[in-house]
Amino acid sequence: MNLPMPDRKTADLPGHWLFARLGKRVLRPGGLELTHRMLADARLTGVDVVELAPGLGRTATDILARNPGSYTGVEADTNAAGAVRSAIGSRGRVVTGEASQTGLDADSADVVIGEAMLTMQTNAHKADIIREAFRVLRPGGRYAIHEMVLQPHDVPDAVKDEVRTALARSIKVNARPLTAGEWTELLTEAGFAVEKIGYAPMALLEPRRLVADEGLPGALRFVFNVLRDSDARARVRSMRATFRRHRDNMAAIEVIAVKPA
Ligand SMILES: C[S@@+](CC[C@H](N)C(=O)[O-])C[C@H]1O[C@@H](n2cnc3c(N)ncnc32)[C@H](O)[C@@H]1O
């Protein structure tokens, strides 16, 4: 498999692609547990599903296991799109492209899914992508997202800034998580009605979550790969310290939003 950004040094790689290089396949804040809850809430069996930013295709295989009517992935990174194609074979199609301009027909999907991809956009671009999900969905269709959330709902602006700066420094991505109220506002501004909100701890690098997400052999392989590379060790240590330091203000959120019928 050709991983994204193969020429980028470990020290400068965005966190999710560093995890991928180290063998991790679940690249989202709430892990598989929140993904599975979200997929159940999105009700996929027999319906047309679009996944925005499938990454390496880990959720794509979980979506296909629920027997949707069809699967279409839209992934910006060429190598990641190739990894999704290898993961799903002929059971779906993958478009290489930008989630805010999918090129898909209006009113052509029953469910749009996106994990760990809105948080990393500017607020204006988040809104563009949400509008595109609304356009692609049929009336009554569901938009399911799994992203980072800031807590509590009235977290002071200074703390928001501190968390965003710490994330940008450690994961090398301009992550801009929102509060649950801010996520709801963005979705309702685009025309959606929020049907359900759920949460999970931000425990991406905690041992129990690593085993739950990657399986015991996968978790051990990840730890081995981290231990043998001093640059990777420094990056992972810094990311875990950031997640721990800000754990009272950061979590993962699932939102199911409906396009009115
Ligand atoms: C943190 S990874 C999450 C991957 C996968 N959804 C998961 O949860 O394992 C972010 C993914 O979003 C993709 N991405 C980021 N911005 C995008 C955009 N505007 N359009 C399409 N894909 C995008 C990246 O290429 C990457 O695959």
UniProtKB/TrEMBL annotation:
Pfam families: Methyltransf_11
Methyltransferase keyword on record: yes
GO MF entry, a single one: S-adenosylmethionine-dependent methyltransferase activity
Superkingdom in the source lineage: Bacteria
UniProt keyword list: Methyltransferase, Transferase
InterPro entries: Methyltransf_11, Methyltransf_Superfamily, SAM-dependent_MTases_sf
One annotated GO biological process: methylation
Transferase keyword on record: yes
PANTHER family cross-referenced by the UniProt entry: METHYLTRANSFERASE, METHYLTRANSFERASE TYPE 11 DOMAIN-CONTAINING PROTEIN
Protein name as catalogued: SAM-dependent methyltransferase
